[in-house]
Amino acid sequence: MITSTRRWFRRNRTNFAIGAGVLGAGYLAGQYILGKVSEARQRMSDERIAKENLRRRFEQNQEDCSYTVLAILPTATENILDAIPVEQILDELQKHKADRLARSVNTSEIASSVPPSIADDDSKSLTSTSESFIHATQAAEGSSTISGDGAEAVAPQAPKPKRTKAQLWNEMKIMAISRAFTLLYTLSLLTLLTRIQLNLLGRRNYLASVVSLASPHSQESRINLENHEDENLEHAYGNDFETNRRYLSLSWWLLHRGCIELMHKVTAAVKEVFAGVNPREEITLERLSELTLEVRKKVEGATEEERRINKWLSYLLPSPSDEEYVLYQSGMTTAATTPTSPSLRRLVDETSDLIDSPAFTHVLTLLLDAAFSHLVDNRIAQLSYKIPPTSASTARVQEIVGGDAKAKVANSLAVFCRQAHNIGSGANNEYLAAIEQVKDLEAFAAVVYSSNFEFEAPNASGNEENVGGAESTRVSRLSTAGAVGAPGPETYAEVVGKGEGFDGGDNGFEDAWGKALAKEGEKEEKEEGL
């Protein structure tokens, strides 16, 4: 029995060896597959965590943008209101009305108590007396003293010529419309500038956090009295508090200088378009919309090519020669000759490139469309033309009813004056809410936040330290993984997730934005087809 069993094993030993080899190979292959599956699951988990982290950071960043705009907008509003004092024109018109009423009342009382011939003489004398009183008052106001003791005085200035009522109304027409339009442009530009600034800083801070997580701690066992490794990494990736403060303070230019330069351009366009409009004239809402569109064409450009070559950079950021002055005026430096750091220079250069890009002009046009539509189609229509708000079910009815509605231009001017304060309000700003409803604004911010990760790598710049090739590769992989979850419309998130166009080259942002628009167009075509 035992001998036969041995002979059987001896005859089949080759089969047993082959079977054992097959089983061993199968076991090893199974373990290899299980390891790869585990690695894939871990990688997917890491990418999902990175996506959620980036999504939370991005959403918080957009909320910070809204709060920042509301916080600094009143500064620009105050400067614009001081530069276009519509209330002074209103006071002069009210004085004209009060003087006219006073003269009519006095003339009627005198005429009822004396003969007509005497009444005429007294009326003339009353008029001459009031005029002489006005001239005397103006002369008294024009005289002033230089020193407090009155020893040295300035000669009385010549009285300003008294403007007629028609001149005042025409001036108020130009000033009221120009002020409202200037505030709309300022709000839209400030919103875009703030989105660019905070998203650029948010991207850099996110990358700094990724670097801190990805950096190896191989020297933990070594005792270092001074460890500057983390500090060097943060400065290399731009996570420098002082640099960030100086970079954000550059918005001082738009709040104090850019808005005033923009005001002159808008006022010139309003004068040219509304010059022939009489404040007593009755016009339709459609006519007012056409006039508003003409003003926008003169400010922004009548064609797509004109809008593309129309640059807004001079209104948003100071020239390199004025940067030191702006930093000094905003309190960031104590001397007007402090040089700009390389990190700040790189931030400003990238911001300038974004502002000069066609994508910026495209998004700005959409924001202005929403802002002007809210002013003219909603507020002016409701408050001046008494047209109820339109809804999806009554849009056609309101179009027919409100199409022939007319209102005096003077009534619309009153609405323009009141809405100017609402446009520049720092709390419960309905115009900012209307602007933020534009989906391309969030998409633009998502592309800015998620693009050019490679450009931020320390080894991309020759004057900064290289944290190591292996670590840079890992940072790039984690950054791209985090960019998968960039918020906004799904089409933009898909482009960002694939990492297409974000190679840090000169055309990285434009390639990403172009592909995002292409994806959005395909989505709209599919929806229309359904």
TrEMBL record:
<dbReference type="InterPro" id="IPR006966">
    <property type="entry name" value="Peroxin-3"/>
</dbReference>
<protein>
    <submittedName>
        <fullName>Peroxin-3</fullName>
    </submittedName>
</protein>
<keyword id="KW-0812">Transmembrane</keyword>
<keyword id="KW-0472">Membrane</keyword>
<feature type="region of interest" description="Disordered">
    <location>
        <begin position="137"/>
        <end position="162"/>
    </location>
</feature>
<dbReference type="GO" id="GO:0045046">
    <property type="term" value="P:protein import into peroxisome membrane"/>
</dbReference>
<feature type="region of interest" description="Disordered">
    <location>
        <begin position="492"/>
        <end position="530"/>
    </location>
</feature>
<dbReference type="GO" id="GO:0005778">
    <property type="term" value="C:peroxisomal membrane"/>
</dbReference>
<feature type="compositionally biased region" description="Gly residues">
    <location>
        <begin position="498"/>
        <end position="507"/>
    </location>
</feature>
<feature type="compositionally biased region" description="Basic and acidic residues">
    <location>
        <begin position="517"/>
        <end position="530"/>
    </location>
</feature>
<feature type="transmembrane region" description="Helical">
    <location>
        <begin position="16"/>
        <end position="34"/>
    </location>
</feature>
<dbReference type="Pfam" id="PF04882">
    <property type="entry name" value="Peroxin-3"/>
</dbReference>
<dbReference type="GO" id="GO:0030674">
    <property type="term" value="F:protein-macromolecule adaptor activity"/>
</dbReference>
<keyword id="KW-1133">Transmembrane helix</keyword>
